[in-house]
Write a structure and sequence with these properties.
This protein is α/β, with parallel strands linked by helices and 295 residues long. The protein contains twelve helices and five strands. It is globular. The chain has a five-stranded parallel beta sheet with strand order 2-1-3-4-5, with helices on both faces. The longest helix has 19 residues.
């Protein structure tokens, strides 16, 4: 194998150019990967090697060899290059995007991350279906018990959601991950309950199994995910889509946090008596336990 020449960010021709340059020398399987990468640039940073291999019908080893063939050290290197490309192309005409680009180029990552999260929130606000939003809020309040679930970054969101729902007077539990399978905890699930799941790339098979199990029981389900074509969306009764683009292959969560807080506020505005009583009682408990210091 020829020694690779180090390419600096300033002289890097870019992912698309590299693929075009090496297209003639790629094997048929590698060409399928190349075609998929060009057609799904924004999706690749959130896929693992096995997931990309499955979607292109190639082996995991072929995915790695493809990355090396077009000049990257491996799949992680390719993903980071795609993140940079997506960042450069992201709504270049918008003022928020211009601020993001400027901050990123100046290596002010605090400002860049803030701009990117601002874009995520604005995209979510522009695209989310308000009727579905209201239906989900109504279903959450109607449920006897809400069970939240997610793995990875979604586990954090599931735990936060359970906390918010409890604070507003709704019975809520985050399904634990200490069991052999999360499905073990669904044995006592009732038709009047609701399972509220979070699913972001890389999508967890266990989350899909939970939704399938709940669906077989006829229990209502709702999911927050990153796109309407996500696997979890096909299994849930109601789906809320948020933008979760991050600066690396991790998902950003600000838009999901905004959505969760908006849901509980929607519930509180429609059911003021019940939620106000719950909030007042929780504040009283906190004062009694001296967790809250008066100023």
């Amino acid at each position: 194998m020829k020694n690779k020449v180090a390419i600096s960010p300033e002289t890097d021709p870019g992912v698309r150019s590299r693929i075009v340059e090496h297209a003639a020398s790629l094997s048929p399987q590698q060409r399928k990967i190349a075609d998929y990468c060009v057609a799904h640039m924004q999706e690749i940073p959130f896929l693992s090697v096995p997931e990309l291999a499955e979607r292109t019908g190639a082996s995991e080893a072929t995915v790695v060899r493809f990355c090396q063939r077009i000049g990257y050290t491996g799949y992680s290197d390719l993903k980071m290059a795609l993140v940079d490309l997506i960042r450069e192309e992201m709504n270049a005409s918008s003022p928020a995007s211009a601020g993001f680009e400027s901050a990123a180029q100046d290596k002010d990552f605090l400002a860049a991350m803030a701009r990117l999260e601002q874009q995520n929130i604005e995209r979510t606000l522009d695209s989310i279906d308000r009727q579905t939003f209201s239906h989900v809020a109504a279903s959450l309040f109607k449920a006897d018990h809400i069970f939240t679930f997610g793995l990875g970054i979604s586990a954090f969101l599931a735990d936060y959601a359970a906390y918010l729902f409890t604070e507003y007077g709704m019975r809520s539990t985050c399904l634990a991950t200490r069991y052999t399978s999360p499905r073990e905890q669904l044995v006592a699930l009732r038709p009047s309950d609701l399972v509220f799941a979070f699913s972001f790339p890389p999508y967890s098979r266990q989350t899909l199994e939970v939704l399938e199990e709940v669906g077989r029981k006829g229990v209502p389900t709702a999911v927050i995910t990153d796109k309407p074509t996500a696997p979890a969306a096909a299994l849930a009764k109601e789906t809320l889509v948020v933008s979760s683009h991050g600066m690396s292959f991790n998902n950003a969560t600000s838009a999901a946090n905004v959505l969760l807080n908006a849901l509980v506020l929607e519930i509180a505005s429609r059911h003021q008596g019940e939620t106000t009583d719950a909030i007042s009682r929780i504040n009283q408990i906190l004062r009694e336990q001296t967790y809250v210091v008066e100023t």
